[in-house]
């Protein structure tokens, strides 16, 4: 029996939150199925299936695609989300695509908001009629 027996292996946690610690800088493209909290700096494109939290010490610059975004630090760029919350120490500069935006007293937003684009749905019966017609 070796040191690495099957029983001692740690199982991966699907619901774990990824943390970008204070003092850590990342540049590039991130894709996450879980939540993420940014205490450091992230520059680039971030795709999050769940929630992105930018803490007081956090700074994100670029483009965000997420279900929910909570900003208590700084964000500059374009954000596509189902829900966006700017907390009392949060600052957002740029463009927001969402139908659910909330800003607490003390929170700052400088930019433009747009409704979240509807998913394009094609009615197959209409497409079939056009092809036959």
UniProtKB/TrEMBL annotation:
PANTHER family tied to this protein: HYPOTHETICAL CYTOSOLIC PROTEIN (PTHR35024), POLYMER-FORMING CYTOSKELETAL PROTEIN (PTHR35024:SF4)
Protein known as: Polymer-forming cytoskeletal protein
InterPro entries: BacA/B (IPR007607)
Family: Belongs to the bactofilin family.
One protein family per Pfam: Bactofilin
Region (Disordered): 108-133
Superkingdom, natural source: Bacteria
TM stretches of this protein: none
């Amino acid at each position: 029996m070796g040191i690495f027996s099957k029983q001692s292996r740690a199982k991966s946690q699907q619901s774990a939150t990824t943390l970008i610690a204070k003092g850590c800088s990342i540049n590039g493209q991130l894709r996450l199925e879980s939540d993420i909290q940014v205490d450091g700096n992230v520059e680039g494109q971030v795709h999050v299936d769940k929630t992105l939290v930018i803490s007081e010490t956090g700074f994100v610059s670029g483009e965000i695609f997420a279900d929910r975004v909570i900003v208590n630090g700084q964000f500059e760029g374009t954000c596509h989300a189902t829900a966006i919350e700017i907390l009392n120490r949060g600052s957002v500069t740029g463009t927001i695509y969402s139908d659910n935006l909330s800003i607490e007293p003390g929170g700052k937003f400088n930019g433009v908001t747009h409704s979240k684009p509807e998913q394009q749905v094609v009615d197959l019966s209409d497409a079939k009629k056009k092809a036959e017609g």
